[in-house]
Design a protein that fits this description.
By secondary structure, the chain is an alpha/beta fold. It folds into three domains: about 170 residues, FAD/NAD(P)-binding domain, CATH 3.50.50; about 140 residues; about 80 residues, no CATH class. About 30% of the residues lie in helices and about 25% in strands. It is built from twelve helices and 17 strands. The strands form three sheets. Strands 1, 2, 8, 9, 10, 11 and 17 form a seven-stranded mixed sheet that branches. It has a seven-stranded mixed sheet with strand order 6-5-13-14-15-12-16, with helices on both faces. It has a three-stranded antiparallel sheet with strand order 3-7-4. Strand 10 and strand 11 form a beta hairpin. The protein starts with 20 loop residues before the first helix and ends in a 12-residue tail after the last helix. The N terminus and C terminus are likely disordered. Bound molecules: flavin-adenine dinucleotide. Flavin-adenine dinucleotide binds next to helix 3, strand 2, strand 16 and helix 7.
Length: about 425
């Protein structure tokens, strides 16, 4: 379905917006204005101009321009498709600190999207007859912290058109906006991200940006901490646990974040703030009250797209970490290529989705001691097994093998909890939308 812009009858509706074929061809190479509207913004009137039923205004309409939708829109445009992106607040500045595994970063993404790289350490604790031992493991894979403003500008490269609007309903080839107008496309992709809801499992965290020299005692020898499960944060051993996440943001600053991996409900942010302060005090980190803060709260389960989805709406959020940005970046180009060739994009195999849903139920079911044991067992598995489990294109065999590996290393009591969770009811994550 990759068509020459000059020949494609599918481009014809673009004339509704007054764009010339010549400018369509140029838009991939330039980030400057195209046609009568700014490259970053097609007037909403133009995008939703009256047209007869069946007219398509674009090859692809991407609903939701978070990291996932923006990456997909960019890659679809790079493959020669005409793309309309729809978002209720496309000008919202992205502020989260995004961490991804280096190997998930695609070739097409410019290298300066990465702010820092590290080989993080995981710290777990294990109960032994004489008490509890602490185990430090340096992961042998590179972790990248993205430069969020740079990422946003790279994914808003002017190669696709943006409509500001609230999608009221997202169909296979039609999006109805809240004001009653319609945007039609050959393929509509739902990339609306996680949906907040009182009953949804959430990840929460509270972080402080601390000068690197002052943060040093929190990290010890490590250049970053992916998960530090040590109990020096003042919380009772029987309380829902949280861990320390620590990553360099640049040469001079480190983000220190107390994180509740997942909970229904998750730990409240004030509690995480108290724990972070207690932990940093216990490690001798001096704070002066001027530190920038980061607050994290997002749903780790979400309704899945009814038709074509991408990002969290396509099950790309990994329940073991709450990460989805790396997977979306890794999968944007293969998805776009499939759309450009008229193929249905391949989503995560259903058995992998089911196994991941079971993984999420397990994390929600484990008691505090079992959760620490679970992560100790996970990070004790060979690196290749962990990598298979965390991969954006995880295979059923790799996912099942990793889960089996972890299960085999658990105590009988924890195995019983896991079995109860795995055979229990399904999560909301499997429900459709709209
Ligand atoms: C502080 C913080 C730190 C984080 N750190 C990490 C990290 O290190 N690594 C990681 O992978 N993830 C991290 N996350 C989670 C990450 O932000 C999300 O998983 C990710 O943004 C999901 O991407 P998405 O594009 O699928 O959805 P979203 O980013 O949620 O984007 C969805 C978009 O759709 C739009 N939208 C939704 N509904 C509609 C509608 N009806 N009509 C029109 N537009 C709509 C929204 O405006 C939004 O722009 C973090 C989150 C926070 C808050």
């Amino acid at each position: 379905m990759v068509r020459d812009a000059l020949e494609s009858p599918w481009r014809t509706p673009l004339h509704l917006f007054g764009i010339s074929m010549c400018s369509v061809r140029h838009r991939q190479a330039q980030t400057v204005s195209i046609g009568p509207w700014d490259a970053h913004r097609m007037t909403d009137d133009a995008a939703t101009a009256p047209h007869s039923p069946g007219d398509r205004i674009a090859d692809v309409a991407v609903v939701g321009l978070g990291p996932a939708g923006s990456a997909l829109a960019t890659r679809c445009a790079a493959h020669g498709l005409s793309v309309v992106g729809i978002d209720r607040g496309p000008d919202r500045r992205w502020s989260p600190t995004y961490g991804v595994w280096q190997r998930d970063l695609p070739e097409w993404l410019q290298r300066d999207a990465v702010a820092t790289r590290a080989h993080p350490t995981v710290v777990t604790t294990r109960r032994v007859t004489t008490g509890r031992v602490t185990i430090h493991r340096r992961l042998d894979r590179t972790y990248a912290v993205l430069d969020t403003p740079r990422l946003q500008s790279l994914l808003r490269d002017g190669s696709y058109h943006i409509v500001t609007g609230e999608a009221a309903s997202v169909g296979r080839d039609d999006v109805e906006l809240a004001d009653g107008t319609h945007v039609r496309a050959t393929t509509v992709v739902d990339a609306r991200g996680p949906e907040a809801g009182r009953r949804r499992a959430m990840q929460t965290a509270f972080g402080l940006v601390v000068p690197a020299a002052r943060a040093r005692p929190a990290l010890g020898e490590a250049d970053a901490l992916f998960m530090d499960w040590r109990g020096d944060n003042g919380a009772a051993a029987s309380a829902p646990p949280s861990f320390l996440y620590a990553v360099p943001l640049d040469a001079e600053h480190v983000l220190l974040e107390e994180t509740c991996l997942v909970g229904r409900p998750a730990l409240p942010i004030p509690e995480l703030r108290t724990r972070l302060h207690a932990r940093l005090a216990a490690r001798g980190v001096r704070l002066d009250g001027t530190e920038r803060t980061e607050r994290v709260a997002f749903a780790v389960e979400s309704p899945r797209a009814r038709h074509t989805g991408f990002g969290v709406r396509a099950g790309m959020m990994h329940p073991g970490s709450g990460y989805s940005v790396g997977a979306a970046l890794a999968l944007a180009d293969p998805y776009a290529r499939a759309l450009a060739h008229g193929r249905r994009p391949r989503s995560l195999p259903r058995p992998v989705q089911s196994l991941r849903d079971a993984g999420l139920r397990t994390l929600l079911e484990l008691d505090p001691g079992e959760l620490r044991e679970f992560f100790d067992a996970f990070f004790a598995t060979p690196h290749a097994v962990q990598a298979d489990y965390l991969a954006p294109k995880a295979s059923t065999a790799g996912t099942a093998a990793a889960m089996g590996h972890v299960f085999a290393h658990l105590t009988p009591a924890t195995r019983r909890t896991v079995l109860r969770a795995v055979t229990g009811r399904t999560t909301d994550a499997q429900a459709g939308t709209d």
